Amino acid sequence: MRVWNIVPGDDRGQLQQSPQEQPEPGSGEVLIKVRAASLNHRDLYNREGLTTRSANTSIVPLSDGAGEVVAIGEGCRLFHSGDRVVIPFFPRWLDGPPRDDILMARGEVGTPGVLAEYLVAGEQELLPIPDHLTYAEAATLPCAGVTAWNALASGSLQSGDTVLLLGTGGVSMFGMQFARAAGARSIVVTGHAEKAERARSLGADETIISSESPDWEIRVLALTGGRGADHVLEVGGIETLPHSLKAIRLSGRVNLIGGLSGFAGSIGLGDLRHRLGVVQSFYVGSRATFAEMNAFVTQHQIHPIIDRTFSFDEAPAAYDYLAEAGHIGKVVIEC
Ligand SMILES: NC(=O)c1ccc[n+]([C@@H]2O[C@H](COP(=O)([O-])OP(=O)(O)OC[C@H]3O[C@@H](n4cnc5c(N)ncnc54)[C@H](OP(=O)(O)O)[C@@H]3O)[C@@H](O)[C@H]2O)c1
User: Fold this and answer.
1) Strand, coil or helix: what is 17?
2) 327 exposed, middle or buried (CB, 10 Å; 0-12, 13-18, 19+)?
3) Which residues does 190 contact at the CB level (< 8 Å), separation at least 6?
4) Is 108 helix (H, G, I), strand (E, B) or coil?
5) What is the distance between the alpha carbons of residues 82 and 72, in angstroms, rounded to a whole number?
6) Is 333 exposed, middle or buried (0-12, 13-18, 19+ CB in 10 A)?
7) Half-sphere exposure (Cβ direction) of 5: Cα atoms closer than 13 Å
8) Which ranges of 202-269 would DSSP assign to H, the alpha helix?
9) Which member of 115, 209, 226, 293 has the lowest number of beta carbons within 10 Å of its beta carbon?
10) Closest C-alpha to 189, from 125, 236, 139, 120
């Protein structure tokens, strides 16, 4: 079968395709023909970080995939050949709170990722694909979708709430879609006028262009009658966090998700204290959280926003496209 590997390079990891023996499912495992995989920003970090100085082993990349069960191992009861399955981010975080010993994601050293024609997985790790979704759509859910859902559901997202989204990438666009489906109002802060227009056409209630409003929290307060946002999906890190802390309502939630501008630096806690804010960090979520999200996605017939799809052989181009940051929503590789 064909497999992409990231091998350590001088400056960053290099994608290389190589033939590999097709795996066989063992007891309690199924063989999946991977039909689609999606990229997340973390996959760029993983490629950047795999240098000859940091690692001496290659990885099969990408955590997020969906495919068809084509063979089952002994004792399998949950899935059968022909079933459509989505592959969660954490093979071992099935339910309950996170634990150090189960927070190993696919696509990292020691846990092969999904950018291969076939993959073996334990059947208890997997979830059925919601009927209304294609393989490509389902492949966008495991990291970005579950993270956005986990943050908003943990904050008891309700109709009438205001959800603040930073940028128009994968996590933020899921947040926008979940907010809309829940009857909440979304405000998207983006660096680009044309992306603001597209975000509005895709369902954003309000958009703010950060270059025109560098202190965009003032606009958020104006758009909410001075109250502030109920939830922020904080993906920006050190550059955006000081603004997010000022943009929330009293006792509002800042969901610490990403660090697109890095995490290093100091931030005063005065605004957080003043707004009586709640900051909570998230790392994707469990299979059980994924299942809850799928029920919501099915109830509201949500179709994830896919910006562009690449073929399996075009995987390096898909990485470069994501790195250029011209996308809105998700970038997918069809296998
Ligand atoms: N904790 C978790 O479990 C978890 C899960 C998923 C992702 N993450 C993290 O969340 C972040 C976003 O991931 P993603 O996959 O959604 O990214 P993505 O699809 O690559 O989207 C990134 C978008 O954010 C905006 N952006 C870029 N640099 C920015 C900056 N310095 N400040 C504010 N906005 C910026 C841009 O949108 P515009 O051009 O519209 O401004 C860009 O297109 C990453 O840091 C990722 O590692 C964390």
Assistant:
1) strand
2) buried
3) 167, 168, 196, 199, 207, 208, 209, 210
4) strand
5) 10
6) buried
7) 15
8) 216-223, 241-247
9) 226
10) 236
At residue 59, the pLDDT reads 93
pLDDT tens sequence across 118-157? 999 999 999 999 999 999 999 999 999 999 999 999 999 9
Q: Check: CB of residue 121 under 8 Å from CB of residue 94.
A: no
**C-alpha closest to that of 315 among 39, 97, 10:** 39
Instruction: Answer for the pair 27, 45: CB distance below 8 angstroms, yes or no.
Output: no
Pocket test for ligand 1, best of 38, 39, 41, 255 (most atoms within 8 A of CB): 41
Q: Is the CB of 198 under 6 A from ligand 1?
A: no
> Residue 205 has what pLDDT?
98
**Can you give the pLDDT at residue 110?**
86
- Among 44, 93, 171, 198, the mutation site with the greatest number of ligand 1 atoms within 8 A of its Cβ is 171
Q: What is the mean pLDDT of the chain?
A: 97
Per-residue pLDDT, 115: 98
Which pLDDT value is given to residue 81? 98
If you ran DSSP here, which 8-state letter would residue 22 be given?
A: P
Q: Which atom of ligand 1 is nearest to the CA of 327?
A: 43
If 0-12 CB within 10 Å is exposed, 13-18 middle and 19+ buried, where does residue 73 land?
Answer: middle
pLDDT in tens, 204-222: 999 999 999 999 999 999 9
Q: Which residues pair with 16 in a beta bridge?
A: 5
Strands 330-334 and 29-39 turn out to be: antiparallel
* Low-confidence spans in the chain with pLDDT less than 50: none
Q: What is the DSSP string of 115-155?
A: -BSEEEEEGGG-EEPPTT--HHHHTTIIIIIHHHHHHHHHT
Instruction: Indicate the DSSP class of residue 158.
Output: -
